[in-house]
Amino acid sequence: QKEVEQNSGPLSVPEGAIASLNCTYSDRGSQSFFWYRQYSGKSPELIMFIYSNGDKEDGRFTAQLNKASQYVSLLIRDSQPSDSATYLCATSAGGTSYGKLTFGQGTILTVHP
Amino acid sequence: DADVTQTPRNRITKTGKRIMLECSQTKGHDRMYWYRQDPGLGLRLIYYSFDVKDINKGEISDGYSVSRQAQAKFSLSLESAIPNQTALYFCATRGAGNTIYFGEGSWLTVV
């Protein structure tokens, strides 16, 4: 089992809809959780990070964390065609693992007009 | 100018050849990383360095070596390239916060 698992996708949503991206992780020592967006052939760019259980909102993006269930999600409201990309979930543990990110395999999102 | 610069951006090399990918950063960060990306597999950590004297293997270090020549420079070498090392390689840095800065990537094809 992969340490970080994302819903396989690809995910296709109409413009204006909510896109829901999911991620589970196996390492209970994970302390920080990240969502990256990656356009084809480009480097990943950070969208959000979250540490605490609950929701964190930033504009059209909401990250949700449930440590008991080892589950992280990203909701994109009012999806736009420009949101079409691969979304990468990543986790980071503390201690000597600080700074190391473990990535999921990514979910391809397509927002169609 | 990019904060994290990778060279070369694209390289085609033959099986058995030695190839070096170079990374330099202007962020002043201590932590530097090399990741490899293959379709459907996300990014996988090859090596990481927390300072010039601290270099650590990641999850897929076999067939790779690294050199941290200075705080700003972290090079990845393939001593004898093989076709399954064909991938997109990213260098990254991280400072005290949570933001990781990625380079633009280096496409490597081994034929």
In brief:
With 113 residues, chain A is mainly beta. Helices cover 0% and strands 56% of the residues of chain A. Chain B is mainly β and 111 residues long.
Give an overview in words.
Chain A is mainly beta and 113 residues long. Chain A has strands at residues 4-6, 11-14, 19-25, 30-38, 45-50, 54-58, 61-66, 71-76, 85-93, 102-103, 107-112. Chain A has no helices and eleven strands. In chain A, strands 2, 4, 5, 9, 10 and 11 form a six-stranded mixed β-sheet that branches. Chain A is globular, with a radius of gyration of 14 Å. Chain B has 111 residues and is mainly β. Chain B is built from no helices and eleven strands. In chain B, strands 2, 4, 5, 6, 9, 10 and 11 form a seven-stranded mixed β-sheet that branches. A four-stranded antiparallel β-sheet of chain B has the order 1-3-8-7, with no helix packed on it. Chain B starts with a strand and ends with a strand. The model of chain B has no long low-confidence stretch (mean pLDDT 93). The chains are: A mainly beta (113), B mainly beta (111). The A-B interface holds A 4, 32, 34, 41-46, 49, 88, 90, 92, 99-106 and B 31, 33, 35, 40-45, 48, 50, 58, 90, 94, 98-100, 102-105.
How does the SSE layout of this entry go?
The complex is a heterodimer of chains A (113) and B (111).
Chain A: E1 4-6, E2 11-14, E3 19-25, E4 30-38, E5 45-50, E6 54-58, E7 61-66, E8 71-76, E9 85-93, E10 102-103, E11 107-112
Parallel strand pairs in A: 2-11
Antiparallel strand pairs in A: 1-3, 3-8, 4-5, 4-9, 6-7, 7-8, 9-10, 9-11
Chain B: E1 4-7, E2 10-13, E3 19-25, E4 31-37, E5 43-51, E6 54-57, E7 65-70, E8 73-78, E9 87-94, E10 100-102, E11 106-110
Parallel strand pairs in B: 2-11
Antiparallel strand pairs in B: 1-3, 3-8, 4-5, 4-9, 5-6, 7-8, 9-10, 9-11
